[in-house]
Design a protein that fits this description.
alpha/beta, five-stranded mixed beta sheet, homodimer
Chain lengths: 322, 322
Protein backbone atom coordinates (compact mmCIF):
# COMPACT_ATOMS: atom_id res chain seq x y z
CA UNK A 1 0.00 0.00 0.00
CA UNK A 2 1.15 3.55 -0.77
CA UNK A 3 2.18 5.64 2.18
CA UNK A 4 -0.26 8.52 1.67
CA UNK A 5 2.05 11.02 3.30
CA UNK A 6 1.11 14.14 1.36
CA UNK A 7 -1.82 16.52 1.35
CA UNK A 8 -3.03 19.10 -1.13
CA UNK A 9 -4.00 22.35 0.59
CA UNK A 10 -6.01 24.93 -1.35
CA UNK A 11 -6.56 28.45 -0.11
CA UNK A 12 -9.44 29.82 -2.16
CA UNK A 13 -9.08 33.56 -1.60
CA UNK A 14 -11.00 36.43 -3.11
CA UNK A 15 -7.80 37.69 -4.80
CA UNK A 16 -5.63 34.59 -5.24
CA UNK A 17 -6.15 30.87 -5.25
CA UNK A 18 -3.08 29.33 -3.61
CA UNK A 19 -2.28 25.63 -3.73
CA UNK A 20 0.41 23.58 -2.05
CA UNK A 21 1.56 20.02 -1.64
CA UNK A 22 2.22 19.55 2.06
CA UNK A 23 3.76 16.80 4.15
CA UNK A 24 2.10 15.29 7.22
CA UNK A 25 4.42 17.49 9.29
CA UNK A 26 2.99 20.62 7.73
CA UNK A 27 6.01 21.24 5.51
CA UNK A 28 5.32 22.79 2.11
CA UNK A 29 6.89 20.64 -0.62
CA UNK A 30 5.64 22.54 -3.67
CA UNK A 31 3.36 25.47 -4.24
CA UNK A 32 1.47 27.35 -6.90
CA UNK A 33 -1.08 30.15 -7.21
CA UNK A 34 -3.23 32.03 -9.68
CA UNK A 35 -5.50 35.07 -9.70
CA UNK A 36 -9.09 34.37 -8.76
CA UNK A 37 -10.37 37.21 -10.92
CA UNK A 38 -8.82 35.83 -14.12
CA UNK A 39 -11.67 33.37 -14.47
CA UNK A 40 -15.05 34.67 -15.50
CA UNK A 41 -17.11 31.59 -14.77
CA UNK A 42 -17.24 29.35 -11.77
CA UNK A 43 -16.65 26.27 -13.92
CA UNK A 44 -13.49 27.66 -15.52
CA UNK A 45 -12.14 28.61 -12.09
CA UNK A 46 -12.79 25.12 -10.78
CA UNK A 47 -11.18 23.61 -13.89
CA UNK A 48 -8.04 25.69 -13.29
CA UNK A 49 -8.00 24.73 -9.62
CA UNK A 50 -8.14 21.06 -10.57
CA UNK A 51 -5.52 21.42 -13.30
CA UNK A 52 -3.07 23.09 -10.91
CA UNK A 53 -3.78 20.63 -8.14
CA UNK A 54 -3.05 17.72 -10.49
CA UNK A 55 0.25 19.33 -11.48
CA UNK A 56 1.30 19.48 -7.83
CA UNK A 57 0.71 15.78 -7.32
CA UNK A 58 3.27 13.30 -8.64
CA UNK A 59 1.48 10.15 -7.61
CA UNK A 60 -2.15 10.26 -6.55
CA UNK A 61 -1.61 7.23 -4.37
CA UNK A 62 0.66 9.26 -2.09
CA UNK A 63 -2.04 11.81 -1.36
CA UNK A 64 -4.17 11.46 1.74
CA UNK A 65 -6.68 14.06 0.64
CA UNK A 66 -7.41 17.61 -0.38
CA UNK A 67 -8.26 20.37 2.06
CA UNK A 68 -9.75 23.64 0.93
CA UNK A 69 -10.45 26.83 2.85
CA UNK A 70 -12.94 29.31 1.41
CA UNK A 71 -13.68 32.93 2.34
CA UNK A 72 -17.24 32.57 3.53
CA UNK A 73 -19.82 30.54 5.30
CA UNK A 74 -19.86 26.80 4.58
CA UNK A 75 -21.59 23.67 5.76
CA UNK A 76 -18.39 21.74 6.33
CA UNK A 77 -20.22 18.46 6.86
CA UNK A 78 -21.88 18.52 3.47
CA UNK A 79 -19.14 20.51 1.76
CA UNK A 80 -21.60 23.15 0.58
CA UNK A 81 -20.71 26.83 0.27
CA UNK A 82 -23.56 29.00 1.53
CA UNK A 83 -22.04 32.19 0.26
CA UNK A 84 -18.62 33.78 -0.30
CA UNK A 85 -18.02 37.26 1.05
CA UNK A 86 -16.16 38.76 -1.90
CA UNK A 87 -16.60 36.28 -4.75
CA UNK A 88 -19.87 36.22 -6.64
CA UNK A 89 -21.80 33.23 -7.89
CA UNK A 90 -20.95 30.57 -5.32
CA UNK A 91 -24.15 30.36 -3.30
CA UNK A 92 -25.19 26.75 -2.67
CA UNK A 93 -22.27 25.14 -4.53
CA UNK A 94 -21.12 21.74 -3.26
CA UNK A 95 -17.46 22.34 -4.06
CA UNK A 96 -16.45 19.33 -2.03
CA UNK A 97 -18.41 16.90 -4.22
CA UNK A 98 -17.22 18.58 -7.42
CA UNK A 99 -13.54 18.37 -6.43
CA UNK A 100 -13.95 14.84 -5.11
CA UNK A 101 -15.33 13.66 -8.44
CA UNK A 102 -12.74 15.48 -10.53
CA UNK A 103 -9.75 14.56 -8.37
CA UNK A 104 -10.74 11.11 -7.17
CA UNK A 105 -9.51 11.95 -3.65
CA UNK A 106 -11.19 12.71 -0.31
CA UNK A 107 -11.91 16.43 0.01
CA UNK A 108 -12.47 18.51 3.17
CA UNK A 109 -13.89 22.01 2.93
CA UNK A 110 -14.18 24.65 5.62
CA UNK A 111 -14.16 28.37 6.22
CA UNK A 112 -10.66 29.81 5.75
CA UNK A 113 -10.52 31.33 9.25
CA UNK A 114 -11.30 27.96 10.79
CA UNK A 115 -8.64 26.32 8.63
CA UNK A 116 -5.99 28.86 9.67
CA UNK A 117 -6.77 28.28 13.36
CA UNK A 118 -6.48 24.53 12.86
CA UNK A 119 -3.18 24.88 10.99
CA UNK A 120 -1.70 26.77 13.94
CA UNK A 121 -3.00 24.09 16.32
CA UNK A 122 -1.65 21.18 14.27
CA UNK A 123 1.73 22.53 13.25
CA UNK A 124 2.11 26.10 14.41
CA UNK A 125 2.26 28.42 17.37
CA UNK A 126 -0.82 26.97 19.10
CA UNK A 127 0.33 23.36 19.20
CA UNK A 128 -0.77 21.68 22.42
CA UNK A 129 -3.48 24.19 23.33
CA UNK A 130 -7.20 23.48 23.48
CA UNK A 131 -8.79 26.94 23.52
CA UNK A 132 -7.36 29.00 20.71
CA UNK A 133 -8.31 32.29 19.12
CA UNK A 134 -6.61 32.77 15.76
CA UNK A 135 -6.66 36.31 14.42
CA UNK A 136 -5.65 37.35 10.92
CA UNK A 137 -4.80 41.02 10.46
CA UNK A 138 -4.91 42.17 6.86
CA UNK A 139 -7.33 43.99 4.55
CA UNK A 140 -9.95 42.69 6.91
CA UNK A 141 -9.67 41.25 10.39
CA UNK A 142 -10.59 37.58 10.32
CA UNK A 143 -10.44 34.75 12.73
CA UNK A 144 -11.11 31.22 13.76
CA UNK A 145 -11.90 29.63 17.09
CA UNK A 146 -10.80 26.31 18.53
CA UNK A 147 -12.73 25.60 21.73
CA UNK A 148 -12.17 22.49 23.81
CA UNK A 149 -9.88 21.20 21.08
CA UNK A 150 -12.43 21.45 18.26
CA UNK A 151 -13.18 24.07 15.60
CA UNK A 152 -16.12 26.09 16.91
CA UNK A 153 -18.43 27.10 14.07
CA UNK A 154 -21.57 28.38 15.77
CA UNK A 155 -25.21 27.54 15.12
CA UNK A 156 -25.12 28.78 11.56
CA UNK A 157 -21.45 28.17 10.62
CA UNK A 158 -20.73 31.88 10.99
CA UNK A 159 -18.72 32.14 14.23
CA UNK A 160 -15.33 33.80 14.60
CA UNK A 161 -16.04 37.18 13.01
CA UNK A 162 -13.49 38.84 15.23
CA UNK A 163 -13.21 41.89 12.96
CA UNK A 164 -16.78 42.81 13.83
CA UNK A 165 -16.45 43.23 17.54
CA UNK A 166 -17.67 46.73 18.31
CA UNK A 167 -15.15 48.76 20.27
CA UNK A 168 -16.74 52.15 19.82
CA UNK A 169 -20.50 52.40 19.70
CA UNK A 170 -20.32 55.84 18.04
CA UNK A 171 -18.05 55.54 15.04
CA UNK A 172 -16.75 54.91 12.40
CA UNK A 173 -19.08 53.18 9.95
CA UNK A 174 -17.87 49.69 9.02
CA UNK A 175 -18.31 47.84 5.71
CA UNK A 176 -20.65 45.45 7.50
CA UNK A 177 -23.17 48.25 8.07
CA UNK A 178 -22.53 48.53 11.80
CA UNK A 179 -20.19 51.03 13.41
CA UNK A 180 -17.06 51.01 15.51
CA UNK A 181 -16.02 47.47 14.46
CA UNK A 182 -12.42 46.50 15.20
CA UNK A 183 -11.82 46.07 11.47
CA UNK A 184 -12.86 49.67 10.81
CA UNK A 185 -9.94 50.76 13.01
CA UNK A 186 -7.22 48.26 12.23
CA UNK A 187 -7.89 46.91 8.73
CA UNK A 188 -5.13 47.79 6.20
CA UNK A 189 -7.00 50.75 4.74
CA UNK A 190 -7.90 52.20 8.12
CA UNK A 191 -4.27 52.06 9.22
CA UNK A 192 -3.06 53.77 6.03
CA UNK A 193 -5.77 56.42 6.34
CA UNK A 194 -4.75 57.14 9.93
CA UNK A 195 -1.12 57.57 8.86
CA UNK A 196 -2.07 60.01 6.11
CA UNK A 197 -4.21 61.97 8.56
CA UNK A 198 -1.33 62.33 11.00
CA UNK A 199 1.28 63.26 8.40
CA UNK A 200 0.19 66.89 8.48
CA UNK A 201 1.39 67.23 12.03
CA UNK A 202 4.56 65.23 11.45
CA UNK A 203 6.23 66.91 8.52
CA UNK A 204 9.58 65.40 9.50
CA UNK A 205 8.40 61.81 9.14
CA UNK A 206 10.30 59.68 6.65
CA UNK A 207 7.09 57.88 5.82
CA UNK A 208 6.13 60.23 3.00
CA UNK A 209 9.61 59.93 1.53
CA UNK A 210 9.39 56.12 1.59
CA UNK A 211 6.06 56.49 -0.22
CA UNK A 212 7.79 58.59 -2.90
CA UNK A 213 5.79 61.62 -1.82
CA UNK A 214 2.46 60.01 -2.62
CA UNK A 215 0.11 59.46 0.30
CA UNK A 216 -1.77 56.96 -1.87
CA UNK A 217 1.29 54.70 -1.68
CA UNK A 218 1.26 54.52 2.11
CA UNK A 219 0.56 50.98 3.32
CA UNK A 220 0.94 49.17 6.64
CA UNK A 221 4.05 47.54 5.18
CA UNK A 222 5.60 50.96 4.55
CA UNK A 223 4.63 52.15 8.01
CA UNK A 224 6.42 49.11 9.42
CA UNK A 225 9.51 49.91 7.38
CA UNK A 226 9.48 53.49 8.63
CA UNK A 227 8.97 52.31 12.22
CA UNK A 228 11.97 49.99 11.95
CA UNK A 229 13.95 53.10 10.96
CA UNK A 230 12.79 54.78 14.19
CA UNK A 231 10.27 57.10 12.55
CA UNK A 232 8.32 58.55 15.47
CA UNK A 233 5.04 58.92 13.61
CA UNK A 234 5.12 55.33 12.44
CA UNK A 235 6.06 54.00 15.86
CA UNK A 236 3.19 55.96 17.41
CA UNK A 237 0.77 54.56 14.84
CA UNK A 238 1.69 50.97 15.63
CA UNK A 239 1.46 51.64 19.34
CA UNK A 240 -2.04 53.04 18.89
CA UNK A 241 -3.09 50.25 16.52
CA UNK A 242 -1.78 47.70 19.02
CA UNK A 243 -3.72 49.39 21.80
CA UNK A 244 -6.90 49.27 19.71
CA UNK A 245 -6.39 45.61 18.77
CA UNK A 246 -5.88 44.89 22.46
CA UNK A 247 -9.22 46.47 23.34
CA UNK A 248 -11.02 44.26 20.82
CA UNK A 249 -9.15 41.16 21.96
CA UNK A 250 -10.03 41.96 25.58
CA UNK A 251 -13.71 41.50 24.80
CA UNK A 252 -12.96 38.08 23.32
CA UNK A 253 -10.74 37.21 26.27
CA UNK A 254 -13.47 38.12 28.76
CA UNK A 255 -16.04 36.08 26.85
CA UNK A 256 -13.95 33.04 25.91
CA UNK A 257 -11.04 32.90 28.36
CA UNK A 258 -8.78 31.29 25.73
CA UNK A 259 -5.40 29.67 26.46
CA UNK A 260 -3.69 31.36 23.56
CA UNK A 261 -4.26 34.04 20.94
CA UNK A 262 -2.32 33.54 17.72
CA UNK A 263 -1.99 36.61 15.55
CA UNK A 264 -1.15 36.29 11.87
CA UNK A 265 -1.74 38.13 8.62
CA UNK A 266 0.50 40.70 6.94
CA UNK A 267 0.29 43.18 9.78
CA UNK A 268 1.63 40.66 12.29
CA UNK A 269 5.01 41.00 10.58
CA UNK A 270 5.39 44.41 12.20
CA UNK A 271 6.64 42.32 15.09
CA UNK A 272 7.49 43.17 18.65
CA UNK A 273 6.58 46.87 18.47
CA UNK A 274 3.01 45.88 17.69
CA UNK A 275 2.90 42.85 19.99
CA UNK A 276 4.19 44.80 22.98
CA UNK A 277 1.41 47.35 22.49
CA UNK A 278 -1.23 44.63 22.10
CA UNK A 279 -0.09 42.86 25.27
CA UNK A 280 0.02 46.05 27.33
CA UNK A 281 -3.47 46.95 26.15
CA UNK A 282 -4.86 43.51 26.96
CA UNK A 283 -3.34 43.72 30.42
CA UNK A 284 -5.08 47.04 30.97
CA UNK A 285 -8.47 46.02 29.57
CA UNK A 286 -9.13 42.32 30.10
CA UNK A 287 -9.99 40.67 33.42
CA UNK A 288 -6.91 39.67 35.36
CA UNK A 289 -8.08 36.10 35.91
CA UNK A 290 -8.24 35.53 32.16
CA UNK A 291 -4.97 37.27 31.36
CA UNK A 292 -2.82 35.58 33.99
CA UNK A 293 -2.02 32.48 31.98
CA UNK A 294 -2.95 33.75 28.53
CA UNK A 295 -0.37 33.63 25.76
CA UNK A 296 -0.42 36.12 22.88
CA UNK A 297 1.93 35.05 20.12
CA UNK A 298 2.74 35.56 16.46
CA UNK A 299 1.39 32.98 14.09
CA UNK A 300 3.91 30.58 12.63
CA UNK A 301 2.27 30.77 9.21
CA UNK A 302 1.60 34.05 7.44
CA UNK A 303 1.67 33.90 3.63
CA UNK A 304 1.14 30.14 3.74
CA UNK A 305 -1.44 30.16 6.55
CA UNK A 306 -4.30 29.40 4.17
CA UNK A 307 -2.80 26.39 2.40
CA UNK A 308 -1.30 24.94 5.57
CA UNK A 309 -4.63 25.39 7.35
CA UNK A 310 -6.46 23.73 4.48
CA UNK A 311 -4.09 20.78 4.76
CA UNK A 312 -4.74 20.61 8.50
CA UNK A 313 -8.43 20.03 7.73
CA UNK A 314 -7.44 16.72 6.15
CA UNK A 315 -5.18 15.70 9.02
CA UNK A 316 -7.87 16.59 11.55
CA UNK A 317 -10.58 14.59 9.80
CA UNK A 318 -8.32 11.66 9.06
CA UNK A 319 -6.93 11.71 12.60
CA UNK A 320 -3.43 10.87 11.42
CA UNK A 321 -1.33 13.33 13.35
CA UNK A 322 -2.20 12.41 16.91
CA UNK B 1 -35.07 1.27 45.75
CA UNK B 2 -36.09 4.86 46.39
CA UNK B 3 -37.04 6.88 43.35
CA UNK B 4 -34.51 9.71 43.77
CA UNK B 5 -36.76 12.21 42.03
CA UNK B 6 -35.74 15.38 43.86
CA UNK B 7 -32.74 17.68 43.81
CA UNK B 8 -31.47 20.32 46.21
CA UNK B 9 -30.42 23.49 44.36
CA UNK B 10 -28.33 26.08 46.21
CA UNK B 11 -27.68 29.55 44.86
CA UNK B 12 -24.75 30.91 46.87
CA UNK B 13 -25.04 34.64 46.16
CA UNK B 14 -23.04 37.52 47.58
CA UNK B 15 -26.22 38.91 49.21
CA UNK B 16 -28.47 35.87 49.75
CA UNK B 17 -28.04 32.15 49.90
CA UNK B 18 -31.14 30.64 48.31
CA UNK B 19 -32.05 26.97 48.57
CA UNK B 20 -34.80 24.92 46.94
CA UNK B 21 -36.03 21.37 46.66
CA UNK B 22 -36.68 20.79 42.98
CA UNK B 23 -38.29 18.00 40.97
CA UNK B 24 -36.66 16.34 37.98
CA UNK B 25 -38.92 18.52 35.81
CA UNK B 26 -37.41 21.67 37.27
CA UNK B 27 -40.43 22.45 39.44
CA UNK B 28 -39.70 24.10 42.78
CA UNK B 29 -41.33 22.11 45.58
CA UNK B 30 -40.03 24.08 48.57
CA UNK B 31 -37.68 26.97 49.06
CA UNK B 32 -35.75 28.90 51.65
CA UNK B 33 -33.14 31.65 51.85
CA UNK B 34 -30.94 33.57 54.26
CA UNK B 35 -28.60 36.53 54.17
CA UNK B 36 -25.01 35.71 53.27
CA UNK B 37 -23.68 38.60 55.34
CA UNK B 38 -25.28 37.38 58.59
CA UNK B 39 -22.50 34.84 59.04
CA UNK B 40 -19.10 36.10 60.01
CA UNK B 41 -17.12 32.94 59.43
CA UNK B 42 -17.03 30.59 56.51
CA UNK B 43 -17.71 27.61 58.76
CA UNK B 44 -20.83 29.14 60.30
CA UNK B 45 -22.15 30.00 56.83
CA UNK B 46 -21.57 26.45 55.64
CA UNK B 47 -23.24 25.09 58.81
CA UNK B 48 -26.32 27.22 58.12
CA UNK B 49 -26.37 26.12 54.50
CA UNK B 50 -26.32 22.49 55.59
CA UNK B 51 -28.96 23.02 58.30
CA UNK B 52 -31.35 24.68 55.84
CA UNK B 53 -30.70 22.08 53.14
CA UNK B 54 -31.50 19.29 55.62
CA UNK B 55 -34.77 21.04 56.52
CA UNK B 56 -35.81 21.06 52.86
CA UNK B 57 -35.32 17.32 52.50
CA UNK B 58 -37.97 14.97 53.90
CA UNK B 59 -36.25 11.74 52.98
CA UNK B 60 -32.63 11.70 51.95
CA UNK B 61 -33.22 8.60 49.86
CA UNK B 62 -35.43 10.62 47.49
CA UNK B 63 -32.64 13.07 46.69
CA UNK B 64 -30.52 12.56 43.60
CA UNK B 65 -27.94 15.13 44.62
CA UNK B 66 -27.11 18.68 45.52
CA UNK B 67 -26.20 21.35 42.98
CA UNK B 68 -24.60 24.62 44.01
CA UNK B 69 -23.82 27.71 41.97
CA UNK B 70 -21.27 30.17 43.33
CA UNK B 71 -20.43 33.73 42.27
CA UNK B 72 -16.88 33.25 41.08
CA UNK B 73 -14.35 31.09 39.40
CA UNK B 74 -14.40 27.39 40.26
CA UNK B 75 -12.75 24.16 39.21
CA UNK B 76 -16.01 22.31 38.68
CA UNK B 77 -14.26 18.96 38.30
CA UNK B 78 -12.62 19.11 41.68
CA UNK B 79 -15.31 21.22 43.30
CA UNK B 80 -12.79 23.83 44.40
CA UNK B 81 -13.57 27.55 44.58
CA UNK B 82 -10.65 29.60 43.24
CA UNK B 83 -12.10 32.86 44.39
CA UNK B 84 -15.47 34.57 44.89
CA UNK B 85 -15.97 38.01 43.40
CA UNK B 86 -17.82 39.66 46.29
CA UNK B 87 -17.47 37.28 49.23
CA UNK B 88 -14.21 37.21 51.13
CA UNK B 89 -12.35 34.21 52.49
CA UNK B 90 -13.25 31.47 50.03
CA UNK B 91 -10.06 31.10 48.05
CA UNK B 92 -9.13 27.46 47.52
CA UNK B 93 -12.08 25.99 49.46
CA UNK B 94 -13.32 22.58 48.28
CA UNK B 95 -16.96 23.30 49.06
CA UNK B 96 -18.04 20.24 47.15
CA UNK B 97 -16.16 17.85 49.44
CA UNK B 98 -17.31 19.68 52.56
CA UNK B 99 -21.00 19.52 51.57
CA UNK B 100 -20.67 15.94 50.38
CA UNK B 101 -19.34 14.85 53.76
CA UNK B 102 -21.87 16.81 55.75
CA UNK B 103 -24.90 15.89 53.64
CA UNK B 104 -23.98 12.36 52.55
CA UNK B 105 -25.16 13.10 49.02
CA UNK B 106 -23.48 13.69 45.65
CA UNK B 107 -22.64 17.38 45.20
CA UNK B 108 -22.02 19.34 41.97
CA UNK B 109 -20.51 22.79 42.08
CA UNK B 110 -20.14 25.34 39.29
CA UNK B 111 -20.05 29.03 38.56
CA UNK B 112 -23.53 30.57 38.95
CA UNK B 113 -23.62 31.97 35.42
CA UNK B 114 -22.91 28.53 33.99
CA UNK B 115 -25.61 27.04 36.20
CA UNK B 116 -28.19 29.60 35.06
CA UNK B 117 -27.43 28.87 31.41
CA UNK B 118 -27.80 25.16 32.05
CA UNK B 119 -31.12 25.65 33.88
CA UNK B 120 -32.54 27.47 30.87
CA UNK B 121 -31.31 24.69 28.59
CA UNK B 122 -32.73 21.88 30.74
CA UNK B 123 -36.08 23.34 31.69
CA UNK B 124 -36.39 26.89 30.41
CA UNK B 125 -36.45 29.11 27.36
CA UNK B 126 -33.41 27.52 25.70
CA UNK B 127 -34.65 23.93 25.74
CA UNK B 128 -33.61 22.12 22.58
CA UNK B 129 -30.82 24.53 21.60
CA UNK B 130 -27.12 23.71 21.48
CA UNK B 131 -25.41 27.11 21.30
CA UNK B 132 -26.79 29.31 24.04
CA UNK B 133 -25.75 32.64 25.50
CA UNK B 134 -27.45 33.29 28.84
CA UNK B 135 -27.30 36.87 30.05
CA UNK B 136 -28.29 38.06 33.51
CA UNK B 137 -29.03 41.77 33.82
CA UNK B 138 -28.90 43.05 37.38
CA UNK B 139 -26.44 44.89 39.62
CA UNK B 140 -23.86 43.43 37.31
CA UNK B 141 -24.17 41.88 33.90
CA UNK B 142 -23.34 38.19 34.10
CA UNK B 143 -23.57 35.27 31.80
CA UNK B 144 -23.01 31.69 30.90
CA UNK B 145 -22.25 29.95 27.63
CA UNK B 146 -23.42 26.61 26.32
CA UNK B 147 -21.52 25.73 23.14
CA UNK B 148 -22.16 22.56 21.17
CA UNK B 149 -24.49 21.44 23.95
CA UNK B 150 -21.93 21.72 26.77
CA UNK B 151 -21.12 24.41 29.31
CA UNK B 152 -18.14 26.32 27.95
CA UNK B 153 -15.79 27.35 30.75
CA UNK B 154 -12.61 28.50 29.02
CA UNK B 155 -9.01 27.59 29.70
CA UNK B 156 -9.06 28.97 33.21
CA UNK B 157 -12.74 28.48 34.16
CA UNK B 158 -13.36 32.20 33.65
CA UNK B 159 -15.35 32.38 30.41
CA UNK B 160 -18.71 34.12 29.97
CA UNK B 161 -17.90 37.54 31.43
CA UNK B 162 -20.40 39.19 29.14
CA UNK B 163 -20.60 42.31 31.29
CA UNK B 164 -17.02 43.12 30.40
CA UNK B 165 -17.33 43.41 26.68
CA UNK B 166 -16.02 46.85 25.78
CA UNK B 167 -18.49 48.87 23.74
CA UNK B 168 -16.80 52.23 24.06
CA UNK B 169 -13.04 52.40 24.17
CA UNK B 170 -13.13 55.90 25.69
CA UNK B 171 -15.41 55.76 28.72
CA UNK B 172 -16.71 55.25 31.38
CA UNK B 173 -14.43 53.56 33.89
CA UNK B 174 -15.74 50.14 34.95
CA UNK B 175 -15.35 48.40 38.31
CA UNK B 176 -13.07 45.88 36.63
CA UNK B 177 -10.48 48.58 35.94
CA UNK B 178 -11.11 48.77 32.21
CA UNK B 179 -13.37 51.26 30.51
CA UNK B 180 -16.52 51.23 28.42
CA UNK B 181 -17.63 47.79 29.59
CA UNK B 182 -21.26 46.87 28.89
CA UNK B 183 -21.87 46.59 32.64
CA UNK B 184 -20.74 50.19 33.16
CA UNK B 185 -23.63 51.27 30.92
CA UNK B 186 -26.42 48.87 31.79
CA UNK B 187 -25.79 47.63 35.33
CA UNK B 188 -28.52 48.65 37.82
CA UNK B 189 -26.57 51.60 39.18
CA UNK B 190 -25.63 52.92 35.74
CA UNK B 191 -29.28 52.85 34.66
CA UNK B 192 -30.45 54.70 37.76
CA UNK B 193 -27.65 57.25 37.36
CA UNK B 194 -28.65 57.88 33.75
CA UNK B 195 -32.27 58.45 34.80
CA UNK B 196 -31.24 60.96 37.46
CA UNK B 197 -29.04 62.75 34.94
CA UNK B 198 -31.92 63.11 32.49
CA UNK B 199 -34.49 64.21 35.05
CA UNK B 200 -33.28 67.81 34.86
CA UNK B 201 -34.49 68.06 31.29
CA UNK B 202 -37.72 66.16 31.94
CA UNK B 203 -39.35 67.99 34.81
CA UNK B 204 -42.75 66.55 33.88
CA UNK B 205 -41.66 62.93 34.36
CA UNK B 206 -43.64 60.94 36.93
CA UNK B 207 -40.47 59.09 37.82
CA UNK B 208 -39.45 61.52 40.54
CA UNK B 209 -42.94 61.36 42.04
CA UNK B 210 -42.81 57.56 42.11
CA UNK B 211 -39.49 57.90 43.91
CA UNK B 212 -41.15 60.14 46.49
CA UNK B 213 -39.08 63.08 45.33
CA UNK B 214 -35.79 61.39 46.18
CA UNK B 215 -33.44 60.67 43.29
CA UNK B 216 -31.64 58.21 45.54
CA UNK B 217 -34.76 56.03 45.44
CA UNK B 218 -34.74 55.71 41.66
CA UNK B 219 -34.12 52.11 40.57
CA UNK B 220 -34.56 50.20 37.32
CA UNK B 221 -37.72 48.71 38.85
CA UNK B 222 -39.18 52.18 39.34
CA UNK B 223 -38.17 53.23 35.84
CA UNK B 224 -40.05 50.18 34.54
CA UNK B 225 -43.11 51.14 36.56
CA UNK B 226 -42.98 54.67 35.17
CA UNK B 227 -42.51 53.34 31.63
CA UNK B 228 -45.57 51.12 31.98
CA UNK B 229 -47.47 54.30 32.86
CA UNK B 230 -46.26 55.84 29.59
CA UNK B 231 -43.68 58.16 31.13
CA UNK B 232 -41.67 59.44 28.16
CA UNK B 233 -38.39 59.80 30.01
CA UNK B 234 -38.57 56.24 31.31
CA UNK B 235 -39.55 54.82 27.94
CA UNK B 236 -36.63 56.64 26.31
CA UNK B 237 -34.23 55.27 28.93
CA UNK B 238 -35.24 51.68 28.28
CA UNK B 239 -34.99 52.21 24.55
CA UNK B 240 -31.47 53.54 24.94
CA UNK B 241 -30.50 50.80 27.41
CA UNK B 242 -31.88 48.21 25.01
CA UNK B 243 -29.90 49.74 22.18
CA UNK B 244 -26.72 49.61 24.27
CA UNK B 245 -27.32 46.01 25.34
CA UNK B 246 -27.86 45.17 21.67
CA UNK B 247 -24.47 46.63 20.75
CA UNK B 248 -22.75 44.46 23.36
CA UNK B 249 -24.68 41.37 22.32
CA UNK B 250 -23.79 42.01 18.68
CA UNK B 251 -20.12 41.48 19.47
CA UNK B 252 -20.97 38.14 21.09
CA UNK B 253 -23.19 37.22 18.17
CA UNK B 254 -20.45 37.97 15.65
CA UNK B 255 -17.93 35.93 17.64
CA UNK B 256 -20.10 32.98 18.69
CA UNK B 257 -23.03 32.85 16.25
CA UNK B 258 -25.32 31.37 18.93
CA UNK B 259 -28.74 29.82 18.25
CA UNK B 260 -30.40 31.67 21.09
CA UNK B 261 -29.76 34.42 23.62
CA UNK B 262 -31.73 34.09 26.84
CA UNK B 263 -31.96 37.24 28.90
CA UNK B 264 -32.82 37.09 32.59
CA UNK B 265 -32.20 39.02 35.79
CA UNK B 266 -34.36 41.71 37.33
CA UNK B 267 -34.08 44.09 34.41
CA UNK B 268 -35.48 41.51 31.98
CA UNK B 269 -38.85 42.00 33.69
CA UNK B 270 -39.13 45.35 31.94
CA UNK B 271 -40.42 43.19 29.12
CA UNK B 272 -41.27 43.94 25.51
CA UNK B 273 -40.26 47.62 25.58
CA UNK B 274 -36.70 46.55 26.40
CA UNK B 275 -36.67 43.45 24.22
CA UNK B 276 -37.90 45.32 21.15
CA UNK B 277 -35.06 47.82 21.56
CA UNK B 278 -32.50 45.03 22.04
CA UNK B 279 -33.68 43.17 18.94
CA UNK B 280 -33.71 46.29 16.77
CA UNK B 281 -30.20 47.16 17.93
CA UNK B 282 -28.90 43.64 17.25
CA UNK B 283 -30.42 43.77 13.76
CA UNK B 284 -28.60 47.03 13.11
CA UNK B 285 -25.24 45.97 14.54
CA UNK B 286 -24.67 42.23 14.15
CA UNK B 287 -23.87 40.44 10.90
CA UNK B 288 -26.98 39.44 8.99
CA UNK B 289 -25.90 35.84 8.58
CA UNK B 290 -25.75 35.39 12.34
CA UNK B 291 -28.98 37.25 13.09
CA UNK B 292 -31.18 35.53 10.52
CA UNK B 293 -32.07 32.53 12.64
CA UNK B 294 -31.09 33.89 16.03
CA UNK B 295 -33.67 33.93 18.81
CA UNK B 296 -33.53 36.53 21.59
CA UNK B 297 -35.93 35.62 24.39
CA UNK B 298 -36.74 36.29 28.02
CA UNK B 299 -35.44 33.77 30.48
CA UNK B 300 -38.04 31.47 32.03
CA UNK B 301 -36.41 31.75 35.43
CA UNK B 302 -35.66 35.07 37.08
CA UNK B 303 -35.75 35.06 40.91
CA UNK B 304 -35.31 31.27 40.92
CA UNK B 305 -32.74 31.13 38.12
CA UNK B 306 -29.89 30.39 40.54
CA UNK B 307 -31.48 27.49 42.41
CA UNK B 308 -33.01 25.96 39.30
CA UNK B 309 -29.67 26.26 37.50
CA UNK B 310 -27.89 24.66 40.43
CA UNK B 311 -30.34 21.76 40.27
CA UNK B 312 -29.67 21.44 36.54
CA UNK B 313 -26.00 20.78 37.34
CA UNK B 314 -27.10 17.56 39.04
CA UNK B 315 -29.37 16.51 36.19
CA UNK B 316 -26.67 17.23 33.63
CA UNK B 317 -24.02 15.22 35.46
CA UNK B 318 -26.35 12.37 36.30
CA UNK B 319 -27.74 12.33 32.74
CA UNK B 320 -31.26 11.63 33.94
CA UNK B 321 -33.29 14.09 31.91
CA UNK B 322 -32.40 13.07 28.37
Amino acid sequence: MAKKDKIVGIDFGATFVKLALISLDGIILKKDSFKTGDFASRDSLIAEMVRRARCLVDKKDDVLGIGIGVPGQVDYKKGVIFNLTNVKGWRGVNLREILKKKMGLPVYLDNDGNAVALGEMEWGAAKGYRNIVAVTLGSGVGGGLILNGEIYRGGNYAAGEIGHICIDRRRPICNCGSNGCLEAFVGNKAIAREAVRRLNKHKGSILLRLAEGKTSKITPKLISQAASKKDNLSIAIWQDIGRTIGIGLSSIINILNPDIIVIGGGISKTGSLLFKAIKASVKGHALEVSVKRLKIVRARFVEDAGVVGAAALVVKEKGCNS
